[in-house]
Structure formats: structure tokens, C-alpha cells
Amino acid sequence: MSASLLKRILDMTRDMGAAETRIAEYAASHPDEVMHMSMAALSRACGVSDPTIMRFCRRLGFDGYQEFKINLAQTLVPAAPFEYEQITATDSVENVVRKTCRNSLNAIQRAQVDLVPAQIAEAGEVLARATWTGIYATGISEVTGLDAEHKFQRLAMRCAAVIGRKKQWMQAEQSRPGEVVLIFSQSGATRQMVEVASAARAGGARVVSVTAEDSPLASQTDVLIAVRPYEHTELMTPLASRLNHHLVVNMMVTVIAKAMGSQFPDQLPALDSWKTDKI
């Protein structure tokens, strides 16, 4: 039951009165806060009485508020720590499929717990105000940078993915106030990206990094979105962590759209040729 609790809360709002609906909407929007709030604090936040909260909990099938909070916590926190399953040469195709899917699902589930919404909100606001955004990445992270470029441009942002060591260094040295440098790095230890961040800040640009916390790149960053690298990034191509970087791009796009008063990404007209030119 816990795995679908947030969905159940939203699905049941159509049968609730105004006061219970406020509780439902608050719980669905701020689940991490609610699981640490007392009943009195939630009452104040929603402008309702304690008996209304008890009625809300019983509507969901719980004996009281404490049981509701326990189930809410189980919804948000994975049952076990993330553990990467190494794929080996002896694995069958069935095992390859199972391990790849399980690693990806577990990493996304952990990201829901590990990501700090305030960091994504701050990054989105900074990017929305930028006069121009340079998107920097190297290696496999270049795919994420190009994905961000495509999605940002659909919001009419002035931006470009800057690919290639020489081009990145030349562009970073020309950074100026009002511009933002957005960097994607799995480990945060790639010398090239750390030097780009340092050069951009020296020119007056702000640096937003999607990278590992407490990394060398994080120390050269104005706004950090901390994404834990789950695999040994120095030994293998980090698929699971890269998926989470793509999720962060989608989150930032939505925050930027809100800040700019733009349409949400899934409401924008299609720009791809497969949609506009298909037979």
C-alpha cells in the first residue's frame, strides 16, 4: 500500500471536502516535510483542525496520524541502500536485462531521496535569469549536455552546448557577468571541467554544476545540484548515474519554465522532424 500512497492521496481528493483537500495537496507537494511534522504543525500549515487531520488519515485507512507518517516515509525511502550489480562476461542475456533494469530503477529511486529540491529550484532560477548559458561536459556526459541544449532551446533560452577541450577553454575564458556556465560531470574530478569552472567564475559568470557532492568541481561551483555517482565511475560507463543526470535536466527545464512563465515542456509544440515531417 505504501508504494502508491501519494497517488492514492491525489486520487481521493475528488471525494474530500475543502479542508481535507488542503491537507492532501500539502502532503502530496511536501511529503518530505510532512513525514517530520507534528500534527499541530501540519494543522497550522494547512489551516485546519487536528480532528480534520485525523479524519483525513482514517479516510486513507490509517488508525492515526503517526501510522500515516510511517507509511508516507516508506513511500519515500527505498527498502534497501542502492547496490550496483556488476554485469560480468558469464551473465546470460536474461541476467543482463534484469541487472540493467534493476540498477537503473534502484538509482532513480535513490535519487528521489538524495536530490535536494532547493538546489534544483535555485539552479532553475539562476538559469532563467541568464543572458546566455554555456553547457559544458566531456566524455559520456556530452550526451546529457546536448539533451539540455535541446530542451533549453525549446524554452527560447539563449544557450549552446560547448563540446571539445579547445572550444570549451576559449569560451570559458570569455565568460562575463550575467552569463551562466552549466557543467555536467559524474565524478566532479575531471580536471578539464574544474578548470572551465574556475575560468568562468574569474570572468564573472555563475557556475551551476550537476555533479558529486564534496568533489573538486563542487568547490568551484556557485550553485550545486548534488547527484551521487553510484558506480565506480573511473572503471565503467556510469549508466545509472547518467540516467539521474537526465532526470535533473527535466526537473530544471520545468523549474525554468515556471520561472519564465513559459509553457511546460510537455505542452510545447513538437520541433522534431519525425513529428512534423512524418508520412
Automatic annotation (TrEMBL):
Q: Name one Pfam family in it.
A: SIS
Domain SIS, which positions?
123-265
Tell me which UniProt keywords the record has, alphabetically: DNA-binding, Transcription, Transcription regulation
Where in the numbering of this chain does the HTH rpiR-type domain appear? 3-79
Entry-linked PANTHER family: GLUCOKINASE, HTH-TYPE TRANSCRIPTIONAL REGULATOR HEXR-RELATED
Q: Which GO terms describe its molecular function?
A: carbohydrate derivative binding; DNA binding; DNA-binding transcription factor activity
Do you know which InterPro entries this protein is assigned to?
Answer: Homeodomain-like_sf, HTH_RpiR, RpiR-like, RpiR-like_SIS, SIS_dom, SIS_dom_sf, WH-like_DNA-bd_sf
Bilayer-crossing regions: none
In Swiss-Prot or TrEMBL terms, this protein is called RpiR family transcriptional regulator
* Biological process annotations from GO: carbohydrate derivative metabolic process
